[in-house]
Every structure is written in C-alpha cells, then in structure tokens.
Amino acid sequence: MSKSTTSQRTDQGRPSLTQRQIIWRRFKRHRLGVIGTVIVLLLSLIAVFADFLSPYTYDSEHRTLAYAPPTPIHFFDENGASFRPFIYAYKQTRDLISNRVSFSEDTSTKYYLSFFAKGDPYRLLGLFDTDIHFFGVQTPKDSKAQLFLFGSDTFGRDLLSRILFGARVSMAIGPVSIVFSLFLGALFGGLSGFYGGWIDMIIQRIIEILQSFPALPLFLALSATLPSHWSSTAVFFGIVLIFSLIGWTGLARVLRGQILSLRESEYVLAAKAMGTKNLRIIFKHLLPNTLTTVIVTATLGIPGAIMGESALSFLGLGIRDPMTSWGLLLFDFLSSMMTNLRFHPWLMIPGLFIIVAVLAYNFMGDALRDAADPFSNN
C-alpha cells in the first residue's frame, strides 16, 4: 500500500472523513431534522410551481360562491363505485330570519375531475403561456360547480389556490431577509470582532439599542410608514428591508464572538505579515471559518421572519392584495371571527401551513446545529 493511500485512512483502517462529510452524517441521523428539510423542500417546490399545482389563479373570483365550504369529492354514484371522481354543483338557500346563505349539493349533474385540466391561463415560471393545471374540473367560470378543496373566501376565490400562491411570499420572505441580514451581520460583526476598541464599543451599543425595542411594536411602526400607493412587490421588499435592518443584530454578536477567538490564529497573523488588507482578512480568512455558525444561525432565524410577516399581514400592515401570503389569508379569518367563526372554519387552514413551515425550519435548524457541534456524540 502506498504512503498516500495510508495517509487517507484512520487508525482503524477506515477512510478519513472531511468536516463536511462528518456534518452530513450527523445530520442524517437527526430524524426530525431530515423530515423538516423534506417539508421545507416540498413547500419551496409548491411555491415555485404554484401556478401549475393550483386549480385556479390566486385572483380568480366566483362572487356567487363567496364563503363556499370545501367541495365534497364523490367516488360513488347510484351505480356504485365510479372510476372517475366527481363533484356536484352548489345551490344556495338564504335564511329569511338570519339572512345567512347556506350551500347544498345539486345532484342532478355530475362534474368529473381530471388531471392536467384546462383552466385559467398563466405563465409557467414566468416564461411559458399555458392554461394546463395539475388537476381541476371542466366547467364554465360562472358555473356553481367549482372545485374548492379548502373552501372559498369572501370574494369566492379558491382558498387552496391562494394558499399555494401565498407560499411564494411566506416561504421567500424568510430566506430573502436573512440574506440581507447576513450581509449586515457579517459586516458589522466582522468589524467589531476584528478591530475591537472604540469600533467594537460603538457597534455593540447600537446593537443593544436595537435589541432593547420590543420586536412586534417596532415592526408595526416601521410597516406603517410604507406608502399606501406602493405596489405589492414594493411592499414585499419594504418588509424584507425592515426585517433585515432589525434582524442582523443577533448574527453580528455571534460572529463577533467567533472572530474574537480566531483573529489571533497563525494564518491570520501570517496574512497580516504579508501585508494583506484588513477587510480581505475578514472576508477571505475569518468569515469562511465561521460559515457553519452562520448557516445554523440563519436557518434558525428564518421562522422568526415567517412569523413576523404573518403577524404584520394578519394585522393589515403587511402584504397587500392582489399579492397574497399566509398571514394575509388569516386576515379573512379575523373578519370571519368577528362575525361567527363556526360558519367559516376553513379560513383557519392557512394557519396550519404557517405552523408546519415554522416547525420544519426549526427542526432543520436544530439538526444543523447539532451536526455542526464538534462536541456532539452523534
């Protein structure tokens, strides 16, 4: 056996593992972390292909079916089992005393469901014009035989379709805001830990001031300053900016501690002796050695951004129509709760998606933290 081959093996005769391979092996042993990662990936794919997966577009309205309950799907008819699932149209009745509209099925006509059904036109991935949806029912738009698996909202819009489209905002706002927070946290945390002295003192006092404000009232105050005439896209990036300006402080302190312990390392002293500029030392030598900590901290920070956006939209200060998010969908739940929640319980479904997404990110972050811990026994 050659000397190079021997050097690649441990004392037990096994091939040596790199740090990345060790982290990956530990991560795979964390079952909740793996499940959380799979859920995050599925929700991300749903957000990307929401146009195709949803039976309607997010703004497709059926005004005569406002607050329609979830559509029952039938697999049996008068002849027994049906090879093709079908639905019935809704018919409405109004209570003359309470003036409340109720829905029942009109069993005179069956409307069959199909995969790859034609529906509302859209641009797949923003590139291709098409009207093919993953599943749907072939009926005219003004027909009362519409497929609302999660019911409809106050304008007769399919709640399932709006949830799938809402995933684009709710799943994107966390990672996008974290990217900006990472830049600010790396910049100020790196400067604070590397230079120390009065620079460290000023940056730490700024961090303490920002962290002393209650988070939710500060979010509300800043969100209220967004102009009402801004488009939905501009509001989205405005909220991202707000989260970024507030969320970088924790990461900056973590990086400061890491860099304080690394700045006297031999490779840093060697870089200084060679005349390397300080900023280059920070961004090329110090920050890459804190990458694992940065990834773990960022992953654990994403659920906070999702919850923050949901809270703002729920209170009417976040994402605005026609764009939608899970928090904005809960705003309809708030309106229904003020009337009578027992009539429209399906409006609570977006809250379940928020819970699942937050738990999935937390499980994934916990698994990354345990896998990156050098003292872990896994």
What does this entry look like structurally?
The structure is a single chain. This protein is of the alpha+beta class. The protein folds into two domains: 66-150, no CATH class; 163-372, MetI-like (MetI-like fold), CATH 1.10.3720.10. Helix content is 56%, strand content 14%. Helix 9 (266-273) runs antiparallel to helix 10 and helix 11 (291-314) runs antiparallel to helix 13. The longest helix has 37 residues, at 159-195. It is elongated.
Number of domains: 2
Q: DSSP strand (E) fraction? A: 5-15%
Number of separate helices: 13
- State the low-pLDDT regions, or none: 1-11
CATH topology of the largest domain: MetI-like fold
What is the annotated CATH architecture of the largest domain? Orthogonal Bundle
How many individual β-strands?
Answer: 4
Task: Write a concise synopsis of the structure shown.
By secondary structure, the protein is of the alpha+beta class. Helix content is 56%, strand content 14%.
Give the key terms.
alpha+beta, MetI-like fold, 378 residues, 4-stranded antiparallel sheet, 14% strand, 4 strands, disordered N terminus
Furnish the topology, listing elements before pairings.
Blueprint: H1 3-7, H2 19-28, H3 31-48, H4 50-53, E1 74-77, E2 80-94, E3 101-124, E4 128-137, H5 159-195, H6 197-212, H7 215-224, H8 232-262, H9 266-273, H10 278-286, H11 291-314, H12 326-339, H13 349-372
